Amino acid sequence: MLNVMTIGLVTLMVITLNSLSTAYREAARLPFEDIQGNIIIQRNGNVPETTSGVLLSCSLAPIPQELVSKIGRINGVEDISEALSLWVFDPDNFKRVSGVDFHDGFGETLTAKIIDGSIPAADNQILVEKTYAQKYSLELGRETTISGRQFTVAGIVGTAGNEIMASDIYLNLGAAQEMANQSKNLQQVETFNKTDVNIIFVNVSQPDLATVTQNIKGIMTDSDTNVGKTPLGQTVGSYNIYAPQSFENQISTVFRISDKLTWVISLILIIGAAIILARNTLRAILERRREFGIMKTVGFKNHDIQREVGEEIFIQSLVGFLIGLAASVIAIVILSRTTVSIAIPWELTAYPHFLLANPNEANVTQMHLLPIKLESPQVLVSFVIIMAVGLATSLLSVWQINKLKPMEVMSHE
Amino acid sequence: MNNIVSVKQLTKTLGNIKVIDHVSFNIKKGEFLAVQGPSGSGKTTLLSLLAGLEQADEGNILVADRELTSMKEDELALFRRYNVGFVFQSFNLIPTLNVVENIALPLFPEHISRKDMFERAGKVAKAVGLTERLDHYPNELSGGEQQRVAVARSLINEPKIIFADEPTGNLDTKTGQRIIELLRSLNSDREQTMVLVTHDDTIANESDRIIRILDGRIASEN
Question: Which string of b and e fits A40-78 if b means at least 16 CB within 10 Å?
Fold first, then answer.
């Protein structure tokens, strides 16, 4: 019974710990579900002296097309999307405006959230976020002014305020670039060319993620790419690269466990279980010496007894594993109802905190249900490990049974 | 009568002590033999050598035409299963098995169905008067009943010879006498060879022959 409970407990711990570790790694990817990419690149720019007209959001610096192309050519990059995030301080209100290519990866993710209307077909058409649309009565077909230009509402989009690149208004990238290029306030702090953007979304296959990230860092710090100074005299080169790992580091609950730590804990549990099982088996064999002695006396071969003990250990291991697996399923169901909070960096959901009565309101946190599930490879690995421990214990018992001499056992009774 | 056991110059040393010292004797088929001797004289060691539970250092043991001294461990196990029955002083039943399972224990390694196994065990149980107790566990039985189970277990494979080491040692006189009567009747009815180690002269006197052991040697035979 002790063996069964030990195996059950170890199975529960190993499966649950590994599932938790995987779930937190998966959770770190959830913010990226909104953007069709797994690397976000921004460059830091200069802080404008006055907040009026059109500005690059969060004082981001422009990213030239050459840089976008260079990144797009890195091996492992599957897709690249670009956008221009602007703050528009119009006299009547403040707007977060994003210029988007509605037909690239990010644009398609955005247009998939259109709840009314259609994708803007012309530069003077826009998508409006539903809450903003309600607040300013911007129904389909209505006209609105952004930095002195007239736009027509082509669609309403159901983006959430805490999504990456959440904006009030989305318009064609070219229109946004034109707007930024012609903004005197913006050009005072940055040199913005008509094809510049200020955010890049890179989609990379999972195995290449680390390598591509390193290559992007190399490009971003390359002096050829970042020569010169900004109009305000600051050195160019400061940049932000966000990958799922960036959010992994932010999920700083006590439950976040790194892969290595998970494996170390699993290994300790397995070794501990193996020691307990070996001890219990040896004790059981000692307690059953007389029984085995009787069996040998009446004609059982060593192999007959070993087979019987081996079957017992196999059944114990199997029952223990199944109990542990059932307990893991229950634990995973319970854990799947817990939430993880992921703080999204200010630059990714840009809102000017100085406009808020409470600047902390500008901080954005995404709440996600923990994406924990029973992974069949983990179940298989745990099963193999438990059976290997059972086999090792059986071999130990074989050695003990072989040593047993029936008359010695009988004469000790 | 033919010899079922033939022992020549048998020697067994444990540590520095010669427990059995160049012993030679024969046992005839169907004989009821008593082995007597003081404690430590080598009776139990002799019994275990004859039964293939211990390996001899020197000499030969021929039991049922099989030379035991040249057999390996697994061969000895098979030899015991089919040729030898045991009855011990302390019964040596397995407490987690019931009566019928204890009786059928030597059949467990065989590839026969549980039904057949327990049918055979039931017949043997009937022969020793345990029909009513088949589902009971050893701790639910009296000493005499437990020893009957042990006798039944020793008979299950219809062995050529039964070794009984102080079978009445843990029983009161009356119960002990019944066990001896049972063994005697098996001996006479089935021509079952019996080798009985006993301290009890009364029991020994009921045997066909008595071998007395002293310091590992045969002191007398009558």
Answer: bbbbbbbebeeeebbbbbbbbbbbbeebbebbeebeebe
